Amino acid sequence: MKKFRIISLGCPKNLVDSEIIMGQMEEAGYEYSEDGEIVIINTCGFIHPAIEESEGEIREQLKRKARGEIEKVVIAGCLVQRKKEELLNLFPDADAVLGHDDIPHIVDIIEGKRKPRISQNPRYLPTLNLPRIVSTEHYAYVKIGEGCSRRCAFCTIPSIRGDFRSRGIEDIVEEAREIAEMGIEEIIVVAQDFTLYGLDIYGENRSAHLLEALNRIDGIKWIRIMYAHPHGIVKNPEIIDAMASLERVVPYIELPIQHISEKILRRMNRSGGKKAVMQALELIGEKLPDAAIRTEVIVGFPGEHQEDFEELVAFLEDSPFARIGVFPYYNEPGSASYHMDGQVDKREKELRYQIIRQVAEDRLMEFQRNLVGREIEFMVEGFENGWFRGRSIYDAPQVDAGIGTRRALRPGKIHRGKVVDVSPEGDLIVEEVQGLQLS
Fold first, then answer.
1. What is the reported pLDDT for 277?
2. CATH code, domain with 323
3. For the segment 39-56, what is each residue's pLDDT rounded down to a tens digit?
4. Number of independent structural domains in the chain
């Protein structure tokens, strides 16, 4: 039996694609192994550091092939869509270079029964018709759509993955039901923008309807929402109403604002601008006063003057954000901002990045310390250095903080405990634990 290995780079949405590739390979009789002779690299191509990581991994695996350690190297994912023919020329020794629309045909391509075709406007959409192996242990991502129809000036996603296209509600719910039957209690709903869901296939926003349908699935205890554009929240306030009324939807939302200066938001082509950010936060604060709000911001965008940056710092310092991710601006070829004037010096971007990182740490610690003395829901995911570790209801995997408890608890199950302290790193220390069964 042939063995294969998949190296998944980039975001959770890319991980779902990797799991679908894995499902197809295993269905065709291949066996997954870290020592597999066929290596599939599912690349990320969003920003320069991700491109460097992807290309470095490709070079490493091609060296292994040249030494006879593996038989085939297959390159897939966003970097392929972004670089297309350039990637074929850069890595001529690769056995296959395939785009998003080739994902459903990967077995035939590897076996030489079909030639890859890198579509200029990919239409690939994950569905239940494509087998999937969930690789995460105590949670699972559910991708509800593909691509993005917004045109933020810094972003290359529309050119990589195409316009936003939604999966049908029935298809999504059935997948979530199958995940629940595996004993997984948390699903994380991902897309480039949750607030675009349904517009293309139903003619209206169906985000709230989707949440209501997912909330009815027995076995699912936590439903977490990632990637909600502020303007989308303002235009569809029923999303927040649903979050507030549905018991399985956790009080957590990712609301990437990117900036707060009206001038910079306008240059970024962020629909709704500052007004949408403020209205979305007001709506969330009114309906979900205890929610953990995560955001992302970009520093050093072309035209960001010192006063714009200071406005961002002041806003974040006094904001309700519990978790803040910050990125220095990368001038990406193919983005609308690539040729903009007012490019910010690299050293100045790094300085601004470090300042916002400190603000982010301060906001995290303030939110965490305010939880001391409160009972919260949390999930244990493993054991390390004498502590059972996991995440609280307020934390998404990989990007947020964690919890630690001395009590021996079953991993992957939802528990309730009292927060007694916060570690120097911002993790919650939880005691007085009792099992929790959600209805």
1. 98
2. 3.80.30.20
3. 999 999 888 899 999 999
4. 3
